[in-house]
Amino acid sequence: MTNCQPTPTKINFANSVLPEYRNSYAIVIDNAFTPEECQRLLSKADGKFETAQINMGGGKSITDTSYRNSGRVIVDDQQCSDWIFERVRPFLGDIETWVNREGPLSRMVRLNNQLKFLRYEPGQFFKPHCDGYYADPQTHQISFFTLHLYLSGPPAESPPTFPCHKAPPTSQQSFFITSLTSIQSTLTSLFTSPPAPPSSSDEIIGGATRFWGKGLNMESWMDIEPRVGRVLVFQQLGMMHEGREVTGGLKYTMRADLMYETIRDEDLFGDVEVVESDGEGEDVEVVDVAEEVEEQ
């Protein structure tokens, strides 16, 4: 029995600063796990963090700390994976079934048992990228969504807030507005004190998961900040995001893939609600490294 009271908030991109993701899916589930449960999960990492690599596809990985700088431990734990999945599944009804592009109807069946624990110390980050699919060669299941569980940070606020910024107008009339904004930003950086250090062991400065606009639109953004017990689920392949630099405290997260299998009985089509991807993942652009990389 758990004392947590999960609170789901589906991100309405159509009415956000990132309307280009209106057909994409993301949800935040606050208080999905208690701080004590997060600590027990984190203990599975056993402190054996190594430098995280970048998955380039085709079984190839590289280490580039100028692009991805964090620690990582991969724990293969089916029992723990099942426990996490059963906790969050009641809030994922919108994606129980999924059709990706022109592919077959698929249903969500499990959380990948490879749990990737990530540690971000001050100065560490993961630059903008898109998550790629994971295909299980044994079960032929495929992932369509990433699940992040934040294991550290302050408690979630109620109602949740997601800091965001909208790109300024791009017309010629916006020149003076943009110039003034630049001047104000410069003055602020000159006369504002640096961020104070964390006031407690639970506080994290920086470290948000930031969603950026599509392609090279790196002006509009939305932040999902680390909150202990918070779960973030979002669509893979088409959503540009990054792990913002941590400037104070320690950020711990656990990442895994939601796995789907093809529904082969065509008679089921009349019994389920089909959710279709917009297929915009075709236009993925990842800054500086590769077309698709895995994880945040």
Automatic annotation (TrEMBL):
Keywords: Dioxygenase, Iron, Metal-binding, Oxidoreductase. GO terms for cellular component: endoplasmic reticulum. SMART domains: P4Hc. Its cofactor is L-ascorbate. One of its GO terms (molecular function) is procollagen-proline 4-dioxygenase activity. It comes from the Eukaryota. Residues 24-259 form the Prolyl 4-hydroxylase alpha subunit domain. The keyword Metal-binding applies. The keyword Oxidoreductase applies. This is Prolyl 4-hydroxylase alpha subunit domain-containing protein. The lineage of its organism: Eukaryota, Fungi, Fungi incertae sedis, Chytridiomycota, Chytridiomycota incertae sedis.
